[in-house]
Structures are given as C-alpha cells and as structure tokens.
Amino acid sequence: MKAITLDSKSPSKLSLTQVQERVLEFGEVKVSIRAAALNHRDEWCRKGLYPNIQDGIILGSDGAGVVEEVGDGVDLAWVGKEVIINPAINWGQDQKAQSKEFEILGMPRNGTLAEKAIVPADRLVLKPEHLSFEEAAALPLAGLTAYRALFYHGQVKHGEKVLITGFGGGVAQFAFQYALAAGAEVFASSSSKEKRSVATKLGAEDVFDYSEKDWAEKALKSSGGIDLIIDSAAGNTFNDLLQVLNPGGRLIFYGATRGNISELNARKIFWNQLKIQGTTMGSDQDFEEMVQFVKEQEIKPLIDQVFPFTDCDKAFDRMKDGKQLGKIVLVP
Amino acid sequence: MKAITLDSKSPSKLSLTQVQERVLEFGEVKVSIRAAALNHRDEWCRKGLYPNIQDGIILGSDGAGVVEEVGDGVDLAWVGKEVIINPAINWGQDQKAQSKEFEILGMPRNGTLAEKAIVPADRLVLKPEHLSFEEAAALPLAGLTAYRALFYHGQVKHGEKVLITGFGGGVAQFAFQYALAAGAEVFASSSSKEKRSVATKLGAEDVFDYSEKDWAEKALKSSGGIDLIIDSAAGNTFNDLLQVLNPGGRLIFYGATRGNISELNARKIFWNQLKIQGTTMGSDQDFEEMVQFVKEQEIKPLIDQVFPFTDCDKAFDRMKDGKQLGKIVLVP
C-alpha cells in the first residue's frame, strides 16, 4: 500500500512510498482510509521536534474510512462500516488526566496517512451521516481537544461569553463552532484580517486583532468581560487574557506556541478567583461525547483545502506556513 | 469604649484610644468583643499598603463575643448570644467570585479590635461550644480562606495527597487541619525547623524545607506525587510546585508573598492537565459550611499567643516578624 512516511534523506523529509501491509493482531482492525487530516503535530514530527522520531514511520493522527478487515476478537459486524478513528490511545480510566501509557496515533505508532491504517478496534466510532469522509477526517484530534477544553475543563454554559484566541487553528475553530452551538456569545482573536472576517461571518459577536497593543482594552469594552477563554499561545500574552476575564473566569489552554508563561499577575488571579487550566486531547468518554455533540448539532468542520497524497509536501508546507483556515485534508 | 486605631502620629502607627460609641442603624448589632485576632491584612494596614487608609479607623477583621444590643429589624433573640463575626461583607450571590461591593471588616469599615464592634446582623453565626472565645476569634478570616481554597476550589477528597506550603501562617494551618479532618494524607513545607516539627507532631506524613534547593525532588520522592497544593507564596516557586503535582493535580493559591509568578512551564501544565486557581476569603455559604465543619470535626484553631489590648504594639510586631505559629489573639 502507499503511505506518507518520514524520510530524513528526502529534501522535504517526507516520502510517498510503498509500504508492506502487516497482519492484524488480536483486537485490531484495518481501515481503508478515505481521507486523513493534518495537525501541527505532523509538521513537528517532520521537523524532528519529538524524541525518538524514526525514519519510515507513517504519520497522521486523523483519519476516516471504511473497515476492511478485523482481527481475532473483533466483532465481524464492523466490516464495511464507515468510521472515524479516535487517535488518543491508552488514555486510561482517569477522566482528570491521561495515563503514562498514553500515546497519539501517528508516532511512534503508524498513523493514518496511508491507504490502510491498522488500529485497535476500540478506537472506532461510526461516522456521523451528515459528514463527508473529508469532514469526518478533519474532526478527531482537534475536535477532541476543543471539546475537552470547552466542556470538561471549561464547563461552558448557555449565555456565557467565550473568547477563542488565535482563530484559524484547527482546535480554535472547533472550539468556536462548539461554543456557538452551546449557546455562548462567542468572541475571537486573530492577527489575520481574512481570518477575522471569516469569524465574523460565522457568528462572532466581535473579533479582535491581538497584534494591536490595546486589543485587550478593546475586547473588555466590547464584551463587557469574558467568562471563558480558550487559548493555545501562552507566552507573554496571559496577562492580557487575565485583564479581559470576569471575576471567577476560566482560562483553558492547550498549547504554548509563544513559549512559557512569564510574569503572571498573581494578585489579579487570586483576588478575581481566576482559574488557569491546562488541557490536551481527551479521554474516550470525551471523544464519544464529542462525536455525539457534533451529530446532534450537525456541526461541519471547516476544510481549508483537500490535497491528494501525491501533493503531501504542499499540504505539509501549508501547515508550516500557518496560512490555513480550517483543516488541511489529504486523500489517497 | 477602648479601641485600637490607626494613628500615623504614633511611632507604632497604632493607638489604644477612647472612641465614641455610635448609634445602631437598621439591621445592625453591637457585639461585646471577648477576643479578636490579627491577620496579615492588619499589619499591611498599619504599613499603609492599602489605598484610602485613614487615621482613626478601628482595625481587626476577626472577632468573637456576646451580642449586647440589636438595631431595628433584628431579632431580639440575638441578645446575649455568643457569636463569631463573619468578616466578609457584601460577597453577593455568585459562588464563583465576590461582587464589586465586597469589603472586609476592619478597613474601611471599623473592625473588631475594640471593646464593642458594630456589624450587620447577617454577619453573625453562633459560636461552636467546643471553642473558647480566643479560639473562636482565631477562626473567621483565615479559617474561611482555607475552607474555600481546600473545599470549594480544591475539591479535596478522602485519601488524596495534599501539600500545604508555608506551614505557620494562619490560613496554612487551618488548611492543614481541615485536610487531615477530611481524610487526606497531608504534607507541609516550612523554612523553620520549629514549625516543621510542629507539623510532624500534628500528623503530617512528611515535612519539607523549601529553602533547600532540591526540596521538590525530595517531596516528589517522599509523597509519590501530590494531588492538591494550597499555597500563598506564588513568585518564582510555582515551577517547583508543578514538579511535585500529579497529572490532573490542582494548585490553589490565596496570596503572593513572593510576588508575581515568573516563567511558568506551560507544557507541564497543559500536558499534565494541571489547574492553577486563585482564591480569596469566601462566600456566606462557604462561611456557614466552614463553621459547621469545624463544629462537626471539633477542630481547634492553633493559638500562638494571647495579648491584652494594652500590648497591641507587641502583638502587631510579632505578626510583622512572622515568628508566630498559629493565630495572634488580642483581648480587651
């Protein structure tokens, strides 16, 4: 079968190459991939930013397709089913945090950027009917991360004011859509004029340009105070975010594209009873709830562009440049 | 009546002086104070660290005594009752955070360091019988802050591992006692050998000297990981605390004696799903639950020393020097 693998000898560090299919082990299934999607994680793997990265690994955490074959111990009824793959493996039983055995599909374990993907059968959920394969493939990693941030940790409530920073990223867009569907008043920020205008079209109450020095004052004035912020920048931006939060407000973050958090205003946090909560991915329960929510609310992921596997270099470069608005999808 | 007031002309900035008693307004009561207790807040008022500090104000947030007189609109049955005063005024209806009208007894409003204190009747709760007036006076501000930190925000559970930093402070000691009573395994830290040995005697699993460079490693090794930390230092110590926390752990803080929080390890927070939560004082509901808990568990506040009002300078100086182990109490 053809697959997109890490290849340190290739100029792009990627190869679209022929890979030997392996035999299924107990409890595994083989999914014929109809669409896969990229995450920053894939680009970071290409850059070698994770430990123990090895040539030949098939990248990709997000995928949707049709079950082609099942291993011993798996219900035969799965064969022929249209499915989404949950890329969070071995979360464990604790809803609060993942176990030490936790891993994400697509490194070190072979992932979804292939004609066939082999995964444990318990990673499958049925594809909601309102989603195409491309849309379904866009959902798993980012949709799960956004769901846990907004609902499990954020406990978003109808009528609350929610700010999604860095609108444009995959998780941010899901958080934006989910928050709207949950009945929140949703605000967004982006340094890109184009992305700001998309957020407005999609229903943002107001959108802010965080590259402006006084954006936090503007946001405070426009919103009257935010109850819940979903962020992935961290770095030196946190004091701005604290300034925008109402007393009792929550700041949930799932990344640190701007690095470690510097000089936090401690008094502001304790006097205003603020919560800062880190989050990543989600439990199996989060994933099931998320797919159910997407089904009920008929949420359609935003797709930036669909590339054939043969254009994988272009697709990865688009992720690298951060120009995408929505998920970047690849089809075999 | 005699009262301890702020006096910028006195070398100690305090005066024990004769103050005119005023007439009760609607809904107020007059409490004959049997004991009052100091908090850092009183010392900070003496130092002029709050805005709008005025000479002549009667300091003191903590007090217990006997109701002597009630104003219009107050049930006469209160007269003669032994009471504790809740110093948190106008918290409001939101359990998540205090209202903008929130204030603390003892500045700007006259406080408890007087023979008589006038407070709204809804600030009274009956003194638990197992407490002397001195012990009851030690409870309100610090006991409330500790209760909210540990239970409302910290959601402490039986069998969890809890670390109380800076053992010796009033809030820290209540948090320590409450956590033990709640069935947690309790650890503590202090830079004072004497305070560490008291913590051990009181039931700490292990006690750490945070002035040692490798204290966090020792704490991690000894405890096997902490679920909940109650802290008031903030500053540059937070990364040490994050290192000690289990995945899904909570770090609740109610002060920042070491200043703002610098260089937080963002990845540690989001990957380990950690929560950092600020807290201060507590709602009326927190106060009622706290007194009920103290009653049921027969918790006795630790008293450092009891001074007569005439020794108020000595009492404040002891607070300033931070040598106390338990609450500093003053009696008229």
From TrEMBL, chains A, B:
Top-rank taxon: Bacteria
Residue stretches making up the Enoyl reductase (ER) domain: 9-330
GO molecular function per UniProt: oxidoreductase activity
InterPro entries in UniProt: ADH-like_C (IPR013149), ADH-like_N (IPR013154), ER (IPR020843), GroES-like_sf (IPR011032), NAD(P)-bd_dom_sf (IPR036291), Zinc_ADH-like (IPR052711)
Pfam families in the cross-refs: ADH_N, ADH_zinc_N
PANTHER family: DEHYDROGENASE, PUTATIVE (AFU_ORTHOLOGUE AFUA_2G13270)-RELATED (PTHR45033:SF3), PTHR45033
The protein's name: NADPH:quinone reductase-like Zn-dependent oxidoreductase
Organism of origin: Algoriphagus iocasae
